[in-house]
Amino acid sequence: MSGGRKPRSVANPLESAITTPSERILRECHNLYIDSENGLVKIASHLGLQLLPPRKKIIVMIMGNHSAGKSSFINWYVEEHIQKTGVAIETQGFTFITSGRKRESLTALCKRTLNIVEKLSDKVADKLRFYLSKADEAGRETDRQRVMMQIVQELCRRPGLNKCGFEMPTIYIPNPQKLSRCVNQIDGVCQTIEKTINQAVQKTLDQLEKDCDLISSTIDSKLAQDRADLSFNSSVRLHSFLCGALGILLPCLSILSFIVNTLSPEELQELLGEGLAKALWLSTGVVVFLWDWIPEDGQILFVIIFGALCYFFLCLAKYFARQGNRTLTKKEKRTLTEYSDYVQDVVKAKKGKLYEEYLAQCAAEYDF
After folding, report:
1. Where are the domains of the chain?
2. Which of 33, 53, 144, 271 is buried most, with the most CB atoms less than 10 Å from its CB?
3. pLDDT attached to residue 192
């Protein structure tokens, strides 16, 4: 396409750039979250939880005024010529550098640098570090002290940047052909970045452990709640059955008693046999006796009350039938069990190996 910018080729492509244990740990932790089949984000969404995958990379913002040496420091740190350098304004925006690729965004003028720094200080003051770059070009030590005083005076004018214990180490790009007596603390910048990366790795591993425990506890609580719902449903079904049986059997028994009472014992024995006829005659005889015991002027009221009672039992049966809770299907319980096994056997085991690699890396750096 005409007018398009030709992408810059890099010496360290993305595949080979991820070589350090910290970068690999962050990448693998990120993949455990975003995996399309068994990612923690997908599992959590099925459980009604919301998890955020950790970042694969650590973002370090480098800000400074015109010709402060920002691009030179970036090129020196990544060991590639990515940013243009020179006395003229080569960079007029924020540049995101991620493994050899870059994109421009958030265009800003250099005169707004302190305004942006002040806004950042209001929210993330603990993450800001100030450095005096190109310290070897400031002349003698008195000149550097004069520059430092001017910077401090400018910062003191802004309430958001006026703070006690202010530190501004001097840094510059080391050049073997140009020796300088100025103290170069650029290694401290690298150590600060490495410390931030190590803290991010440890925080990511700890968060991975917490998210695994959260998913496991949620699955256990869902399975326990399902067992409680099954027990509750069995109880309400029993109550519904008993109330429905009373609402149906009582009127049927009453009607059957009056029908049996119209037959003689001999006729009943011929129809049902001697044993069954005798048992039926005795059971229905109780109902007939109670009916005869009720005065004739109160029998109509008794029928109304008896019918209302049977209707009440049927309503209770319908009420109990609606009280059952939804339970998990066999497929859902099997899926939850598989999720729990995957988190415990795969993710936590992977986390343990990554943590061992992280500790081995820390031990190696300490020995070095």
Report:
1. 58-98+100-130+132-184, 232-340
2. 33
3. 84
